[in-house]
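Standup notes
- HV: blocked on the assembly model, inputs below
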Amino acid sequence: MTDGPVIILVHPQLVENIGMAARAMANCALAELRIVKPRDPWPLGEAHQRRISGAASGADYILDGARLYEKVEEAIADLNYVYATAARTHDMVNKIFTPRAAALDMKARALAGQKTGVMFGPERTGLVNDHIVLANAKITVPLNPAFTSLNLAQTVLLVGYEWYQAQNETPPLQTHYGDSRPATCEEYLNFYRRLEEELEAAGFFVADHMRPAMTRSLQSMLQRAEMTEQEIRTWHGVISALVNGPKRSDKSKA
Amino acid sequence: MTDGPVIILVHPQLVENIGMAARAMANCALAELRIVKPRDPWPLGEAHQRRISGAASGADYILDGARLYEKVEEAIADLNYVYATAARTHDMVNKIFTPRAAALDMKARALAGQKTGVMFGPERTGLVNDHIVLANAKITVPLNPAFTSLNLAQTVLLVGYEWYQAQNETPPLQTHYGDSRPATCEEYLNFYRRLEEELEAAGFFVADHMRPAMTRSLQSMLQRAEMTEQEIRTWHGVISALVNGPKRSDKSKA
């Protein structure tokens, strides 16, 4: 069996749902839970502890091993490929997987040594665009379009269930990365930050209200490219070159 | 889209679980809910009504259309093929489907005009053997063998999810029934009852404690045969002939 994806709960509201998500993870032999800024203070008080443990129904070992984060960016920093679960269509260009197709993709990546993760948004609102854009792809569960509201633990269960089923299937062919390796989310994020700073300094963002949409659009596009660590370094070089301008280099002599 | 299976909840204990099962059904575009002797008196009192409706999260239309039954036998009487969800292996010979394979089977049966149903047992104990034997096949969800406890609504969700996914797939070839049609559960049950009575009268059950296991074993075997209505009538004739003994028929003259 390959390593399963890390399950990342973003701003979960109810401890019961965290407990039930842990139980669903145990059902599917998934082990690694990360929680970004839950509503209730962590470590939990006694009453909350009782409620979460009741909902986990014996999957406490997953809760005990869970790691807490302040921000989504930190929770995914070490991952190579991140999926965002989202029910609705957002206005960005995105790869959209079914849970079944995503499961095969996760398996292929695990076999290639990549570490994957799946983000789940808060109960009522789901993931916001600023978090979805941090992912490389979306997962949308194909269900009754007239009634799509799935609870948090059920979405975790369906993703985990498909991952578990996919362990017996052969994934499609995967990308070969040559001498490099796929970049981590942290490497991507460093690059975006730098790009944004440079664009800011260059006066690229003429109207402030356009800025989030433009940033997200650049980010989403680069995310889909699935760059290697080497390619990101190359891009850093590109930005440096562009910022510093012509310098009587070999090229300017030509 | 083909007609989905009827969802049959056998002795559900908590109204919240019935509500969540209805929500999972709505997610998967399943419409017909049958409830056999729930723990709480039905129609529900005001407090229970609030709890079930909260859990259903908008799927009240499924609860409103739900039908109540005193016995499993009545709840499945009109169905042609019934699946029993069960996590553990029981001591009967049984066809065991994964939810995915069952979904294709359901679709094929629906296309052939059969009405199917899936039974789900009470929360803690699951279905008892006496109820499992009424089904033609079992559904077992392949999940982490070290942590198989799924809650009721989650099991409904996984079965419904696979049924919904199967709508885009072509089912394998199905049985052709000639001029007859598949028997209903009621026709099977009438036959078992009669067979048991005749065996009783004939002194077949030498030890009373052996009786349940023997009856179940006969029932399970006949269930797997997937008889037509015509074949069941033939069997009734067989029993009559055996019971009434030789009657100077053509055969005895031979």
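- HV (later): unblocked. Confidence is low (pLDDT under 50) at residues 248-254 of chain A. Chain A has two domains: 6-165, 185-253.
- Next: hand off to the docking folks.
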